[in-house]
Here is the input.
Amino acid sequence: MSLFQECKDALSADINIIDDKEQSKFILNLLNEFLTSYGTINCNKLMCTDYLNIENVLNSFKDYTYKVYVVADDSDIPIFQTNLKLALENFYDVSALSSKIFIFNENEIFFPLFPNEFIRYGLLNPK
Here is the structure.
């Protein structure tokens, strides 16, 4: 069984594989709003908080049932959508997909700081 299949099984209660090219392009453009040209989180555009581990994140977010996209820095892993609660509760399955993984929506992003267990959370600054 592949790592993606394990992740897919862990998120089976709510996972939607994005296979439409236009929708994928929209999602990648959305992701680019958070990133620098080097593929790192642009903390100049975001209010960032670093968490020591996933347990700290889970304790900090109470209302987290909304939809997020997951993009791995690996072209063999499809873009998919799930709810944030499932993504965070199964964070180790999700983050095992690639050394660089992004969990995000229009306003916020979660990004594991590989190779340790730190997780960076970024919230878009109001314009």
